[in-house]
């Protein structure tokens, strides 16, 4: 045990002495949180919109003022000519064109189908779909409603108004639709993966590359102790990072803490262990730091960014990717973090992802100790 | 000149000998392209919802049917009260709750007024917004159809079934089929080229530093310029190779349209890679160990990637972040690749971004070369 403690001390010194890495390790979460917490936005707002209105009338004016009133749209022009609108779309001045028909008023009077056209810059399919959904909802709620009001009571003496369904909308867990609520829990996962898994794999590969691993291997330390000793300082650093991130999330971004703090810390520790084990596993198969870095990037970073639901909703992905995502530990951890922070879930609600994460961690720990070779070749 | 050739030969031998790195350069692109091109979507496919129908009338059933028939919503479960339905929302089993209160149909028949409650899981605010827009469109259509329906049922109604309709026609420009791979693949290629150019070049020099072999090179009569050129040219060239490989995969596997000139793409890529290897050199001269270099490189890389507009639209970022990202070479190159490949833009259309890239190169390269010292401090 004394030997082991001495080894841990050596490792802690290693980490503490390397001021630059330490600075990056502690500064990085802060900078990322502040930068991404504010800058990462996936909502579509202020869409540069052109309204094509060849024959202005009450109906079209109603639509135009609805466009002006909505913060989603920003009317850059109203024009009578479709050609001009298309030109603006082509040159990138506008991204959405809502074109009304020449005989809008007349058609409405005759109760004929009202035709309108939405032309959108579709190069980004994500944004395009969103823009169309908003534009349709806008046209529907303005033209559709005034149309119904006109046609329904009109000549029919009873004077019954058109039916109207009021929708009360409740945005659960995130009333203001703040993007930070979505991204901050994801950043926790990203930072922990990076610090824990990547750093461990690189530090182990480094000893191998510099030849000092040989010294450790002939020491009385058991392989398990070598791994544990390497990992302990990073465990401490990661826990520190979690605390810093959570403090920032609460104070700077106003992300609520609706569940139990103790539970969150426990889950974070579980995930850190999992990531550390992953790092050891990667380093066992990498000969150089360069290879370890590239392998960690490929097997950890990108799955963490893409297959956990950090930025892109898992539910929108093809089935096969959803299946693959089940094997990514970060996916389960993100579910837990969002659940505790934003929904106030308890362990009882989260037993499933927790059990999966615990099973993965156990498996990875066993694998990583097993794969750690006592001989160099 | 001959010295440089020898240096280049050495570097290329080292690179080609490392199987792992070669595999990363060749396999990573395909893996990333396959996963990223399919994963990076915000599209809201059939969102599961819980129905709380307290009315149990014909009209309420029709409304629920309208939701499922739209294809946008999928009825997951029926609940007797709001509480259990919201509980399901909390557990993530459904993403929306639709509550139709008692007396909904009677209210509509008597005074043409009704109300429903929609609760969305708004952790991802953008998706919640799109779901809400779909629901609003749907409710608007339902209102109008209901109006016709109710009028037709009244005695002496002058209205014939059919009534007022809104016919919207949508066209998507530039990417008419809204293909995600078409949009994502050019951007992912940029990321790939960046990994090779920035990460590998940064690690390469530090590795020689750490192993002490840089010292050996430093005492040779090789000049500073030759050393830098010998170190950077291989990765510059490898970046272009990775790009060609990626473009081939994009063309033959993903059938991504290549409307613009490939010569232009390569010319811009050559400029872009200069910036990236410059960054790699700067990072390597700032770091003592590969661990430090890895961290610095990853730190900048992730900032560059997440703020480049690759995953989240750059237009959605706050204004200060948009101005900040003008200094981000990735932002320019992603925009150029998308415009040239997808829209077939020529040099005049992308002039602004090329100037941005050139400015980056003019700042980064001289700084990196100037900072590099043959004599250690």
Task: Describe the structure concisely.
With 377 residues, chain A is an alpha/beta fold.
Polypeptide structure, described:
The complex is a heterodimer of chains A (377) and B (377). In chain A, helix 3 (58-69) links the parallel strand 1 (47-52) and strand 2 (73-79). Chain A is of the alpha/beta class and 377 residues long. Chain A is built from 14 helices and 5 strands. Chain A has a 4-stranded mixed sheet, sandwiched between helices. The two termini of chain A are 28 Å apart. Chain B is of the alpha/beta class and 377 residues long. Chain B has a 4-stranded mixed sheet, sandwiched between helices. In chain B, strand 1, helix 3 (58-69) and strand 2 form a beta-alpha-beta unit. In chain B, helix 1 (2-17) packs across helix 9. The radius of gyration of chain B is 29 Å and the shape is elongated. Chains A and B meet through helix 2, strand 4, helix 6, strand 5 and helix 7 of A and helix 2, helix 4, strand 4, helix 6 and strand 5 of B. Strand 4 of chain A pairs parallel with strand 5 of chain B.
